[in-house]
């Protein structure tokens, strides 16, 4: 064994942990990854509905949330989307773009994981499963990483433990960020993000199963908090779909502060309220015998029509309702269903060039453990790849550029 070789322990064999391990090993370190699961990369396999939307070549504007949004931009300057694409091509993942959303050419998350695991093996990374880390301490310049049965020693530790989001466990499962909190780091309250929202009286609206193009506006008081367009999914409990997911982070934070939150749904995104009113009028003139409900067949999904025509509004009010269908948001579907959590370790305490802790030298924190959450479209994985790569390179001893 080379006495000068650095020993790096990575806690978590998910997206950022595997990237970190490969980079640290390539930089010359002896790397062991510890994961509490029976197999590595469990969450990665579920990403993008099993297809893994691994990054995005679109604009970064407004994509990331957190107390310091500039942190994500700095991280992505230091390890860019282009770096990510080059890295994946290099380990075997050929990619394709769907309007800037990048997927493996195989369209299978499984192949992204396989290529990561092969790359890790090729540079000598050891992965140990069923090793849940309970505590990390630094004693006389060396880290002690404790599991139920063993204490590992390391020169550097990378915490890449993710969050509870999307994991079907008991609701009281602790957030992995607690490991860093017990070492002195600050945790910004973690809440589900990219999550379906529950709305008052959804069950009575009869719209469950409807998928419709539209937009959602999140409103609190008189303030427009977020607005997103795309395919809305209407459910027994409320609203879902990519636009709702993207707007949910802000809505959940407001609900948590007990603020009243409303969602305004626009079911006619291709025209103004006036244009819709004119269209309805024309349809009424050409088919005068049709009832209000029948007048809407062919314009809106059938299961949406009763909610729009409830109380038999006139055509002007109907157009207004279809453009501004207002519901009170009462909650969300919880961490188990969420794709990510907002909040996490305060990024004030992390160096964006290396992801090293500013409090504890040679401790690194990556991915979703940090107080950054991204929009749908590959941004969360991109943040995991960037933070993992920067931490791995630095922990492994690579010269900083
Ligand atoms: C259903 C679903 C679909 C998604 N789809 C996409 C998508 O298409 N595109 C996208 O960009 N993002 C997507 N995401 C989000 C993305 O998966 C995460 O943001 C990303 O995986 C975070 O990477 P990470 O390395 O921080 O954590 P993870 O990938 O969650 O890895 C954390 C690892 O740490 C391990 N661990 C935790 N605690 C301990 C401990 N105490 N000891 C040892 N090991 C521990 C876990 O077992 C896990 O393997 C999706 C999420 C979900 C739930």
Explained architecture:
The chain is an alpha+beta fold and 401 residues long. A hairpin with a 3-residue loop joins strand 9 (142-147) and strand 10 (151-154). The two termini are 28 Å apart. Helix 1 runs parallel beside helix 5 (109-122). The chain has 13 helices and 21 strands. The chain folds into two domains: 7-188 and 345-396, FAD/NAD(P)-binding domain (3-Layer(bba) Sandwich), CATH 3.50.50; 197-332, no CATH class. The strands form six sheets. The protein has a six-stranded antiparallel beta barrel. It has a five-stranded parallel sheet with strand order 7-2-1-11-20, covered by helices on one side. Helices cover 31% and strands 26% of the residues.
